[in-house]
Amino acid sequence: EDQVTQSPEALRLQEGESSSLNCSYTVSGLRGLFWYRQDPGKGPEFLFTLYSAGEEKEKERLKATLTKKESFLHITAPKPEDSATYLCAVQATGFQKLVFGTGTRLLVSP
Amino acid sequence: DARVTQTPRDKVTEMGQEVTMRCQPILGHNTVFWYRQTMMQGLELLAYFRNRAPLDDSGMPKDRFSAEMPDATLATLKIQPSEPRDSAVYFCASGFRDPLQRQGAPSYNEQFFGPGTRLTVL
Fold first, then answer.
1. Å between A73 CA and nearest CA of chain B
2. What pLDDT digit, counting tens, does each position of B37-50 carry?
3. Following DSSP, what letter does each residue of B50-114 receive, concatenated?
4. Distance from C-alpha of A53 to C-alpha of A27, rounded to nearest angstrom
5. Residue B65 and residue B38: Cα distance in Å, rounded?
6. Strand (E) or helix (H) holding A13
7. From CA A39, how far away is CA B84, in angstroms rounded?
8. Tens-place pLDDT, residues B48-100
9. Which chain B residues are closer than 8 Å to A96 by Cβ?
10. How many alpha carbons lie under 13 Å from residue B107 in its C-beta half-sphere?
């Protein structure tokens, strides 16, 4: 069964304090790994798709990387507006549904 | 700008009542997904449609849940009868799957989520 585990469950950072969120996965064959951001009371917002080990993608202060077993979302010099829950999801080869992790709640204090 | 809309945003009902949630996908998208989100389980896929045809509803309790797409601009999720354990936020998402799989075409996996319907069953 495909599984996604995210850690930590919650993370508190000071503004400017860089860190990383982890997404470990087990999947029969990876078609894609996805990162979403979710703000309270809103739907998830798409951030990145990664398809193969070694791939990296960046958007503003965020950079996502992928290995054969896990993905990291690196946050460089975060700002309070980066506070949100970050969700990771995988899609297995031959299947079309996404399997989501339970997310990491990030709080960035000024 | 284009976005997925859902109604109602909040619904409080009593056990045994019928609940209908509606979703308007982004115009031009051909794939629609229904998810349920709870604190314990996170985001779970209930069902999804491609070109209005159901492709997978294995995540949905069949005895009380039903999902349909009467037309390309409307998807519905119905619960009858509702139970307290159905209390959750229900999200609709849409995306586009290029049937020709052309290089550079946007992946349907870039799903765009609506704001959700928060359902409370008393």
1. 18
2. 998 888 999 999 98
3. ETTEEEE-TTS-TTTEEEEEEETTEEEEEESS--GGG-EEEEEEEE---TT--TTPPPTTS-EE-
4. 14
5. 17
6. strand A10-14
7. 25
8. 998 888 888 888 988 999 999 999 999 999 999 999 999 999 999 998 776 66
9. 48, 55-56, 108
10. 13
